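Bumping my old thread because nobody answered last time. Still need a sequence for this structure:
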């Protein structure tokens, strides 16, 4: 399926320059002069290379639809992660770096979706948002800014996120897995 260069989103799988690439980070830029473009960081799904590319709105790129299958995360084994097929209970072991930064958000028993290309695992999709506990939050300095500001906090999985000033250690929050940003306070 062809999509416009400015419709690329993080997590999209693209067929580009003869390979399969995942869009890792995107930044939409509208310069004062000239047309808008999307600056995209791509990661090759086969050999792990990274590439920075610009896509204008007039350009199209092939978005690849992968087969998906439901799996459950079981445990970590060194640098490998073990998942179980929810249909037939077969186990599969995949390298941790296949998930990138999102691997820190894996939780025991978490349901994930494996994306397959020609029956070969290409990527693992976690839920977009997960619940996490703040173990350490910096103190707010009164009068630091006139407007509301965010402060750094450390989650129970070791990831640092920026949170509103009223959030303190021990609070459960909802975090966007791929942007690694605070979404809201957990109920």
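Sorry it took so long. Here it is:
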């Amino acid at each position: 399926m062809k999509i416009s260069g400015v419709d690329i989103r993080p997590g999209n799988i693209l067929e580009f320059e003869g390979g399969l690439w995942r869009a890792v980070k995107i930044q939409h830029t509208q310069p004062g002069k000239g047309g808008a473009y999307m600056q995209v960081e791509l990661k090759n799904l086969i050999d792990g290379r990274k590439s920075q590319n610009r896509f204008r709105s007039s350009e199209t790129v092939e978005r690849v639809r992968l087969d998906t299958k439901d799996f459950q995360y079981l445990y970590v084994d060194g640098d490998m992660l073990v998942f179980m097929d929810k249909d037939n209970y077969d186990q599969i072991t995949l390298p941790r770096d296949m998930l990138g930064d999102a691997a820190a958000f894996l939780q025991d028993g978490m349901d994930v979706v494996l994306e397959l290309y020609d029956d070969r695992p290409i990527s693992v999709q976690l839920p977009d948002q997960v619940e996490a506990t703040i173990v350490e939050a910096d103190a707010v300095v009164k009068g630091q800014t006139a407007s509301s500001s965010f402060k750094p906090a450390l989650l129970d999985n070791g990831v640092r996120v920026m949170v509103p000033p009223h959030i303190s250690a021990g609070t459960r929050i909802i975090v966007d897995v791929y942007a690694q940003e605070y979404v809201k306070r957990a109920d």
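The two ends are 39 Å apart (CA to CA). Let me know if any region looks off to you.
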